[in-house]
From TrEMBL:
SUPFAM superfamilies: DNA-glycosylase. The gene is nth. Binds 1 [4Fe-4S] cluster. InterPro entries: DNA_glycosylase, Endonuclease-III-like_CS2, Endonuclease3_FeS-loop_motif, HhH-GPD_domain, HhH_base_excis_C, HhH_motif, Nth. Belongs to the Nth/MutY family. This is Endonuclease III.
Length: 236
């Protein structure tokens, strides 16, 4: 790959891949943020529910009108799914998500005093909130060491070689990542993996020619060779 040099030791430990990954991003992208637009925990949890199998860009387009009509959990909980549907018709699975949002608003109002809980188990009780969504909210809002594994995190973690091939479920990937990522960096690493998968390590044809992680990437090593040279510093 012209103009892009990648070097690998003959055998690379997983801890070395993590070291390089973490060193690179803490140096070059120290404050990553979600691309979902929100101003409160309520707005974020609604946006994350809508973002399931949908782009953040699409969610950001529908959120202003939705929030204008349903600005609080009480407003959302008082609405029927049929009233919510027109505002989210352009997202994926709008019928199911309209039902989830109505139930979400009711439960937040009736059981959580209209406050978004911080605990993973409480978040998962909310309609439309699975482990991934709960981890996003806990990480982004409450800065807890929760690793949300979406399709990007799953794909990138396997391609780079951060997780073993035996990690075949999102939960297994989550646990494998948490073994090596310091608690203080978990919430940031979540964003680093997502954004890297969204813009560089894309699903069909990863952009290896511009990727800064090729020196430690198992996918690149397998497909483009294994030069026998010393591993360069991650921050170089």
């Amino acid at each position: 790959m012209a103009g892009h040099i990648a070097v690998f030791p003959i055998l690379m430990r997983r801890v070395d891949r993590f070291r390089y990954f973490l060193d690179y991003f803490t140096t070059n992208f120290p404050e990553p943020e979600t691309e979902l637009v929100y101003n409160s925990p309520y707005e974020l949890i609604v946006a994350v529910v809508l973002s399931a199998q949908c782009t953040d860009k699409r969610v950001n387009l529908v959120m202003p009108a939705l929030l204008q009509q349903f600005p609080t959990p009480a407003h959302l909980g008082a609405a029927a799914p049929e009233e919510i549907f027109p505002f989210i018709r352009s997202v994926s699975y709008p019928n199911n998500k309209a039902k989830h949002l109505a139930g979400l608003g009711r439960m937040l109002t009736e059981q959580f005093n209209s406050e978004v809980p911080s605990q993973i188990d409480e978040l998962q009780r909310l309609p439309g909130v699975g482990r991934k969504t709960a981890n996003v909210v806990a990480s982004v809002i409450y800065n807890l060491p929760a690793m949300a594994v979406d399709t990007h995190v799953f794909r990138v973690s396997h391609r780079i070689g951060l997780v073993p091939k035996s990690a075949t479920t999102p939960l297994a990937v989550e646990k494998a990542l948490l073994r090596y990522i310091p608690e203080s960096l978990v919430s940031k690493a979540h964003h680093w993996l997502i954004l890297h998968g969204r813009y560089i390590c894309v699903a069909r044809t990863p952009k290896c020619e511009i990727c800064p992680l090729t020196p430690v990437c198992a996918y690149f090593q397998k497909n483009y060779g294994n030069p026998a040279a010393a591993l360069p510093p991650a921050t170089a």
